[in-house]
Design a protein that fits this description.
By secondary structure, the protein is α+β, with helices and mostly antiparallel strands. The chain contains 4 helices and 3 strands, in the order αααβββα.
């Protein structure tokens, strides 16, 4: 999630320095790069049964260059409680929370600068 938030050139430099990335096959690298591009474009990542079997997972990045905050926030919800996948619903809720955190961090940062 965090890596997807970097500009493409910076992301590429980070990956090229990664021993794990170098170990991937060409196809594995392409899958990872495509996944990172999708996450960057969508603004969130989703998965089924990734953290724990029977869960819908969603993750978003938190922060911006203006606040200096760069983090990720994720949630896993039990999928058997609803018939429809909840991943996009969870991502929407997480994006709202991330936006509030970023807004509060920005406000707090400016208050500290004034004091």
């Amino acid at each position: 999630m965090l890596l997807a938030g970097y500009p493409i050139a910076a992301r590429q430099r980070i990956l090229e320095a990664s021993a794990d990335f170098k170990k991937l096959s060409k196809a594995g690298r392409e899958v990872l790069l495509t996944s990172l591009e999708t996450i960057a474009s969508d603004g969130y990542a989703t998965a089924k049964d990734e953290s724990v079997a029977g869960t819908d997972d969603a993750a978003v990045s938190v922060g911006s260059p203006d606040t200096g905050v760069h983090a990720a926030m994720a949630i896993a919800a039990l999928s058997f409680r609803s018939k429809a996948p909840r991943r996009s619903e969870l991502a929407t809720l997480l994006r709202k929370c991330a936006s509030e955190i970023d807004h509060n961090a920005y406000s707090q940062m400016h208050r500290l600068k004034r004091d």
